[in-house]
Amino acid sequence: MDFYRTAGIEAMISSASTAVEVQGPDRSHPEVESTSTIAPYYSGVNGINQAQNMLFKEALWWTLGIIALVVLTIRMLEIVWAQLRLISAMSVAREKQGYWRISQWSWMPAAKKHVIYAPLWKKRHSRGFRLSSAISVGTLPSRLHMALLVGYLGSNFTYMFVLNWANDNRYAFCAELRGRSGNLALVNMVPLIILAGRNNPLIPVLKISFDTCNLLHRWIGRIVVLEVVIHSIAWAIAAVADNGWEYVRRAITGGLFIGSGTLGTVAVVMMLIQSLPSIRYAFYETFLNTHIILATIAFVCTWAHCASASVPGGLPELSWIMAIMALWFADRLARVIRLAHANWSGRGFTYAICEPMSGEVTRVTLTLPKYMDIKPGTHAYLRFWGVNS
Fold it and tell me: Considering only CA atoms, which of 123, 147, 128, 149 is closest in space to residue 139?
């Protein structure tokens, strides 16, 4: 007997060990019939386990918060320890500073050698990893970075596939997977945007480099794309099974909800393709500008997708995408203000003189329109407005 053929599908399914909240069929849709085992599960929030979605959202955000708190605590201890060393050593002779010549923790040198600064394999993670002399596949993370990535990506996969595998109705299963993957994609967009910004407040607070943030940004972006694709496929499976591909085409072209979701999916997949290292390194300026345009399309489509759902007030994730876009807009605005402040004054704009040198090196001499306090050993990311021959 098919449980979902009964006329009254309850919103709460209880068992001896657990209670799972499952949304019942949405009767506001005319295509939903009480005898259907497919139709309810590609419309509205039918079959979506929203209680578990919110639970895993909290778990993922708490995981990130705890990691940031641990790093902040370590950085504060390092600052205090360095200050104690400075105060104790500044007033004594050099020969009396022997205490500070060796590590005070016997395990620290081994931790730095084998974990903190160690490459993943024998390849230095700061050097490019190539399949051939012409094809670069990016840089390998360090062992510490890899441990963080494996833990974070592993938690995403765990949360995504904690589903009701005993469900005999595969379309109800797809609905639950659709809700979970879409929810996690929005959850991951929050750290994705925070880690992407050059004005990221975590960089000075946690004393981590922009390169580390960028590494985490790239990998979180890849998991977001995977979750978005799974979200779309899970919806399409039930829709095609019930009404065929012609219905899918009409839903994409004739409705804001499905149309915006499809366009957003296409945008993030294109972002993944054009961010491949071999393309990104060869055409970085093109990559960067295209990346910003595609990100704008993806965010706007996600907002429209969440707002146009048949749920009163939109999907629960609507407030998240609003916060994500606010963070993204604030970062873009801060970049514009910072660029204008550093490169423009009443005397004009910054200009550069580029001189070719031996060894495929170019010396760039910048003439700034105002005084800038540039510390020794710093570096700059340069973008050129145009070229004067």
Answer: 128
- Identify whether 366 is part of a domain: no
Q: Is 374 a domain residue? A: no
Residue 181 located in a structural domain:
yes
CB 78 within 8 A of CB 211: no
Instruction: Name the nearest CA neighbour of 186 among 364, 353, 61.
Output: 61
Cα separation, 243 vs 31, whole angstroms: 10
- Distant-in-sequence, close-in-space partners of 254: CB < 8 Å, separation ≥ 6: none
Amino acid at 359: G
Report residues of the chain scoring pLDDT below 50. Answer: 1-35
The Cα 251–Cα 113 span in angstroms is 56
Rounded Cα gap, residues 71 and 67, in angstroms = 6
Residue 183 lies in a domain: yes
Task: List the helix and strand counts (H, then E) for the chain.
Answer: 11, 8
CA–CA separation, 169 and 44 (whole Å): 18
Element at 136 (helix H, strand E): strand 136-139
Taking a C-beta distance cutoff of 8 angstroms, is the pair 137, 278 a contact?
yes
Q: Alpha-carbon distance 46 to 235, whole Å?
A: 11
Q: Which residue has the tokens 């010549």?
A: 101
Which pLDDT tens digit goes with each residue over 24-57?
444 444 444 434 688 788 887 888 888 999 999 9
Look at the block and give the residue holding tokens 């203000």.
337
Count CB neighbours of 193 within 10 A: 23
The domain in which residue 215 lies consists of 46-90+122-345
List Cβ<8 Å contacts ≥24 apart for 116-120: 116/142, 116/144, 117/142, 118/142, 118/143, 118/144, 119/143, 120/146
**pLDDT tens-digit readout, 318-335:** 999 999 999 999 989 988
Query: Alpha-carbon Rg of the chain, whole angstroms?
Result: 26
Domain count, the chain: 1
